[in-house]
Task: structure prediction
Amino acid sequence: MNSLDPLQTRIRAVLFDVYGTLVHIQNPKSPYRQLLKVALERQPISKEQSARDIMCRALGLTEAAGFYGVELSEIQQCRLELDLDEEIRSLRLYPEVPEVLRTLRARGYRVGLCSNLALPYVLPVVHLLEGMFDAAIWSCEVGAIKPDPEIYAMATLRLGFEPAAVLMVGDNYQADVEGPRLAGLHALHLDRRNGGGDLGSLEGLLDRLT
Result:
């Protein structure tokens, strides 16, 4: 679905991915990825499953290390915590995001957030987007991860609309386009880097929903 023209009268809510869509990390440190690397060296689990475990549970860095049975030295723990703090302090909204979200709400659309993320990243996002959204679903809080269909079902329920009345927008094709469409939502792919998606920035979304 490359055009929303036939659907404009049916879309009542827009559901957004967060990282890479609304928020970017200026100084990525990937502390959880560092921790997973240590864990994967010590036990035979897949990278995909280990990432799912972290994003489907309310685990801080210390709890995540304990979950995998990884004993961190005081220095290792301190370094990871510092990396996490530095990464979070570098979070920024993409320039067009505030205007786009506020315009959508002013036009009567409900705005939701649906993101795969670890627990420490939730509150910083909530603070950055305060007053700009109506509902949010975080994988670490609900125990489901995109593209699992249940996370979209929970998101549409919180928005108060049937899936057919909700549009998902995000930068990950599998999680933000294929998954939502299989769950009955509409979807547009945001490709900020290459411009090969349905949208090159979120500004174009306002034209699609005029």
In short: The mean pLDDT is 91.
